[in-house]
DNA sequence: ACTTGCTGTGAAATCCATTCCATATTTTAT
DNA sequence: ATAAAATATGGAATGGATTTCACAGCAAGT
């Protein structure tokens, strides 16, 4: 396979000149440029990018850490990332780590290894302190609210968004409010739990341990929630659910059992998913696509700019009123 | 930043010895190994992987070409890919190309550039002939039925699967069968269209141009389909829809308009999505996760094995009978 | 006529690890 | 005791580009 040296030899110029042509540098005469381009064509030459990466110390690649890709939440964020990456001609390395810390650390090590120019953490099992140690090796952006860390973040305020949802339900006259969550442990999950507990405590609304339902990941988990609700001696009259698809599961199952929404059970979801739009689910929009897009733009700026202080960008959520409250 | 030379100097050994330790090669004395490891620790050294990639000519990275990630179909295939990639300790480079040929070609060029060890094409706008030209530079696997090409593939037989669905509807007594498709142009889309036309022609069932409905991508497109159906003078009594989420949109909208499923309209979907399970949609399961997993295993074998002839792996689909037919 | 600045060109250093080859020492087999 | 094999180690070539530096020629400014 031809290399730059070969091109130089055949074209009768120096290696430097070939490199200049390759990189569109000035100060190459028309004749030599043409000769080089012709030789490149003729020998079917392409640059070995690994050599370029080695000498430049850049790869135009960014790693994305997330646990799974086939969840709506993650896939929309990645969609936002990918759109911007395409525009900026960067590569995204999808590092699906299943929330395994050792795998996530391997990805951060890629930053030390110079394999990548930055890391975008969509969701992680790692502590912020651990992530901070890697800021020495390159820019890192999270899509979680991690406080004033040495790495950047794009986030919505889950505490506030969640409370807003609860206040909305309370204002509509619902006083027995349940709560559905995905993972029990997890940074934004914990924030939402505190918001829930704090709100109920402050407003002196009833709090039952069994009204906090965890591990609701899929549509079918949502359907299962209905049966748990039906078996309760005291049942909530409203429920806040992280994920419209889970809410959809609950609603569809509720229809089968003639439970009226919102008369018997009010529901507010999250993520503003298409299925929620269709079913008329009242939801909290958290700008997932925009979050991905912003995360990319931030890291891109940090890679190509001054590499100044970390950016903390708060996105605004909004409650979309529909028919389930 | 420390490099291997520095480690060798400080540890008082040769560069070769450091490399041996790094790569777990035999023939290094306990003492020297310990000294090297200690120095590595002390100087906080890590390999520059770009140098490794350059000299070895391998990157343990595989590019994945697809148009969007936030569609169920693609995200589940990628989930399958990612699981296997994690096991094999390979990196996936997500190349979301929006079906732009020029971007897809750039990805294939990465194979020439030695940036990646292989390419998995989940869905593409390129012609098979174009893809074949790149097989010279490394292994390529598609998740589409492309015939006996010089690149590998994992696929289900869309023609046969689609006909099977139609036969199933016909056998159940439905004779006016409509058809909902995502993109009008596209390789598996065209195959399904032929299957539809062929079947109707052969069985002499009624064929109306307006019963072929295209650009049904989202749940909401599915809902829109209902309104098109309602406005038809002659309406199909059954419909086959590529994508359960689109079917779900149609079904949910149908409920709102008191159209009974399947009495007024039978529906068969594709992909065996969770939302379909929940709504009891009869569907054709096309093993998306498995398709991704197999695609990865095939390319992994080709990279690390003999690099023999292309593999063409056919996966079996199955009709899952539920309540909408 | 003379400095300054721009254009054009190439030699050589650099990025950093892997690996082939040569050599030295020690162990095992005959 | 001696040949053969295994262990241990390092020198130097290699992979393929970018970039700094030095220098030459030529046009413009004073």
UniProtKB/TrEMBL annotation, chains A, B:
This is LacI family DNA-binding transcriptional regulator. The keyword Glycoprotein does not apply. The keyword Transcription regulation applies. It holds the Pfam family Peripla_BP_3. It comes from Paenibacillus monticola. CDD domains: HTH_LacI (cd01392), PBP1_CcpB-like (cd06286). Keywords: DNA-binding, Transcription, Transcription regulation. PANTHER family: CATABOLITE CONTROL PROTEIN B (PTHR30146:SF105), LACI-RELATED TRANSCRIPTIONAL REPRESSOR (PTHR30146).
């Amino acid at each position: 396979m031809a290399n730059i040296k070969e091109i130089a030899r055949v074209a009768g110029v120096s290696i430097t000149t070939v490199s200049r042509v390759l990189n569109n540098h000035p100060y190459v005469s028309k004749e030599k440029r043409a000769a080089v381009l012709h030789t490149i064509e003729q020998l079917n030459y392409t640059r070995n990018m690994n050599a370029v990466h080695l000498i430049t110390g850049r790869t135009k690649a960014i790693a994305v850490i997330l646990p799974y890709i086939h969840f709506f939440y993650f896939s929309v964020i990645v969609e936002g990332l990918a759109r911007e990456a395409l525009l900026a001609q960067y590569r995204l390395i999808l590092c699906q780590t299943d929330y395994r810390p050792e795998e996530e650390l391997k990805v951060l090590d890629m930053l030390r290894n110079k394999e990548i120019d930055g890391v975008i953490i969509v969701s992680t099992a790692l502590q912020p302190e651990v992530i901070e140690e890697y800021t020495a090796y390159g820019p890192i952006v999270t899509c979680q609210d991690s406080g004033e860390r040495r790495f950047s973040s794009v986030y919505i305020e889950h505490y506030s968004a969640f409370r807003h949802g609860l206040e909305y339900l309370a204002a509509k006259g619902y006083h027995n409010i349940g709560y559905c969550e995905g993972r029990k442990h997890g940074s934004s999950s914990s924030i939402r739990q505190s918001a829930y507990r704090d709100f109920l405590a402050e407003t002196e609304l009833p709090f039952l341990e069994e009204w906090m339902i965890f591990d609701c990941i899929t549509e079918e988990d949502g359907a299962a929630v209905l049966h748990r609700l039906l078996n309760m001696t005291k049942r909530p009259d409203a429920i806040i659910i992280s994920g419209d698809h889970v809410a959809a599961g609950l609603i569809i199952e509720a229809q089968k059992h003639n439970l009226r929404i919102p008369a018997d059970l009010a529901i507010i979801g999250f993520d503003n998913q298409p299925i929620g739009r269709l079913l008329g689910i009242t939801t909290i929009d958290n700008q997932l696509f925009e979050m991905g897009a912003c995360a990319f733009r931030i890291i891109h700026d940090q890679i190509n700019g001054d590499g100044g202080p970390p950016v903390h960008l708060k996105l605004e959520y909004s409650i979309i009123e529909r028919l389930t409250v």
